[in-house]
Amino acid sequence: MRKNYICFIFCLLIIKLHSQQTTQYTQFIFNKIGYNPASSGLSLNSKYELIFGARSQWLGFSNNPTSGFISYNYNFIPQHGYTKWHNIGMYIDHDQAGDLSQDNLWLSYAFHLLVSKKTIMSFGVFGGIKHFNLSTSNLDKSDPAIAKSSSSVWAYPNIVPGIRVTNKKMFIDLCFQNVTINRKSGFGGQIGSPSKLFPHYTLNTGYKFKINDLDNLVAAVNLHSSLFSLPSVEINIINYYNKRFALGASLRSKNFISAILQFRLQHNLSVGFAYDLSINKTRQIAPSTAEIMISLSPLFGGEIVDRKAKLNVTECTF
Known about the structure:
By secondary structure, the protein is mostly beta strands. The protein has helices at residues 2-13, 32-35, 144-147, and strands at residues 48-56, 66-76, 84-97, 100-116, 119-134, 152-167, 170-177, 185-186, 189-190, 200-210, 215-226, 232-241, 245-252, 256-266, 269-278, 288-296, 299-300, 303-304. The two termini are 18 Å apart.
C-alpha cells in the first residue's frame, strides 16, 4: 500500500500549472481548515481551535500580493458513544493582488462519522458572503471598463462544500469553490467587465511515515484548479520531532521552492514559518515570499500533544 501511495504522489507532481488560482498557502497542512471545511474539528480531544496567519508574496515588489486569514471552530463532544459528532466555526480570509482584493466571510459546519475503528468520514460546508474591492487610484479612469466599474461589491451566497477521509496514517479530501458565485457582481454592482469566475476544486492528500518513536515524516500533496484547466500542484514534506518541532520543504510546480519551520511554544500554542524562493522569472526582481501561521490548539502536526488523551478516537486524527 505504501509503494502504491508513493507512486500516486509522484504522478501528481509531474502535472504542470495551467490554471486560475484561489488563495494559496505553503503550509496547507497547518491551515487545512482553510482548504476544506470538512477538516474542522477532527479531534474530539481538541474542543476548539483558533488559527490565524498571513502571507506576503514577492517581498520588495510594489503593491505585491498579500493574504491573511483567521479561523475558529468548536466541537460538540457527545456525552456517550464517540461514533459521530458535530463542529461549528467561522473562517475569514483576505486576498489582495494589485488593485483588486477579495474577502470571504464564512460560517462553517462539519459532521464527523467514525466509519471504522480508526477511520473518520467527514462532511463540511462553508456558507457566507464574498466581498470584492477595486482601488481605482492607479488605474486609467478613461477606460470604459474602469469608468463603469463599481469599487465595492458583495456577492452571495458563497457556499463551499467539502468531504474528507482521515485515519492515523493518511488523509484525502476534496472541496469546491466558486460553486454559487460565478461573477464579480452582486449587491453594489459589478467589478470591471462581466468576466466569469469558474468553479474550482481543491484535492489534498497525505501520508504519515513513522520513522521511530520520536520522528514522523509527513508527505502531502495539494492539487487545485478550475474544472476546465490542468491543476497547480504543491508538495509538503515535513518531519515532526517529538510533537515539539518540525522542519520541512515544499515545491509548488515551477514557481516556488520553500523551507518550513514549525514549533510548539507552549501546550496549546504552535507557530509555523515558511520562506518561499521564486524559481521562475520573478526571482530576478523579487525572489522572496514569507508566511507565518499561529495556532491555539492542543494539536501539533495533527496529533494531540498530551501523551494520555481523554478519548482514544483521537488516533484517527491527522
